[in-house]
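Hey, can you fold this one?
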Amino acid sequence: MDNQRADDRGSNAAGNAGLATSLAPGVATITAELGGVTGQCVIAATQAVLARLELSPQSFTLPAGASTALAATATFSDGSFADVTAQAVWSSSVPAVASVDRGTVAAGVPGSR
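Sure. Predicted structure:
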């Protein structure tokens, strides 16, 4: 990745009082100038990574033969979040009791462990 001035990427625009904001993965050189004297630092902006996966509802009761939809929400290291229900790989620890397909849970026959 090449080094760019922070204002080349739109980060730390006038009025942000020294606040550098990561806009995309890469490396940028941050420059401050006062009275003809400059100082610099380098920032390496990284891609946010998956920090947590939460299913909702967390707990529920489902009559035998009924089904209900679950949702999977991902929280990333930068605090952002996304609905990843369609992207998640779903499984059940006891498919005879409750099966799951793309986030839809179906209850099996009671006592069929």
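Residues 6-45 form one domain. Let me know if you want another pass with a different chain boundary.
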